[in-house]
Amino acid sequence: MARYTGPVCKLCRREGQKLFLKGTKCFTEKCPVERRAYAPGQHGPASARRRKASEYAHQLREKQKVKRIYGVSERPFRNMFVKASRQPGVTGENLLVGLETRLDNIIYRMGFASSRKEARQLVRHRHIQVNGRLVDVPSYQVEPGNEVRVAPKSKDILPVQASLESKTRPSQVNWLAVDDGSRTGRMIERPSRADIPLAVQEQLIVELYSK
């Protein structure tokens, strides 16, 4: 699957806000978004002076922002939207809940990784167990009651230790219970929209895909 490997600060500049894609470095380094508050590229400064963006442009930017925050490419993101639209309830909320309950995001929320990208790497390298079984699929959907833990042989690897000791680790969400000592966590319940600390307008994504 194709994945963006360029400078992540360009993605933040394109969306016009910090997406915290570099983990702790976003807090310790001077952010390019603050120095150059316009889109990257030679036409970036000029675009800031253009006329008001269209409704479609706002919808597209919101979709791109959410995709980049969670590190999901277009096809799986679209598939998640289709699945969310078939579930009972509000489609936009279902979409965000599906993204939040991915295994890589759970690892990030528990504080075992400093970024979602680092969390995906931990999963891919088989450092993570779900209910005692090794899982190497970052998109694995964690269910309420599932126990997620760092594998015993990987408890003291540097990325996990550094993330747990970081002063900028993500604030704990109330739908997850975490034990730092044993490197173990559990999903207590399925999160609602109010439990997801993300400043996005998911309804714009629903409107975009519903055209």
If you had to describe this structure to a student in words, what would you say it looks like?
The chain has 211 residues and is α+β, with helices and mostly antiparallel strands. 44% of the residues lie in helices and 8% in strands. It has eleven helices and five strands. It has a five-stranded antiparallel β-sheet, with helices on one face. Helix 5 crosses helix 11, helix 7 packs across helix 11 and helix 8 packs across helix 9. The two termini are 26 Å apart. The mean pLDDT is 84.
Strand content: 5-15%
Radius of gyration: 18 Å
Query: Which range best describes the helical content: under 10%, 10-25%, 25-40%, 40-55%, 55-70% or over 70%?
Result: 40-55%
Taking the alpha carbons of the first and last residues, their distance comes to 26 Å
Order of helices and strands: HHHHHHHHHEEEHEEH
Keywords:
single chain; about 210 residues; alpha+beta; five-stranded antiparallel β-sheet; 11 helices; 5 strands; about 45% helix; globular
Helix and strand arrangement:
Layout: H1 8-15, H2 25-28, H3 32-35, H4 44-47, H5 55-70, H6 74-86, H7 91-100, H8 103-110, H9 116-124, E1 128-130, E2 133-134, E3 147-150, H10 158-165, E4 176-179, E5 184-187, H11 202-209
Helix pairs in contact: 5-11, 6-7, 7-11, 8-9
Describe what is shown at a glance.
The protein is an alpha+beta fold.
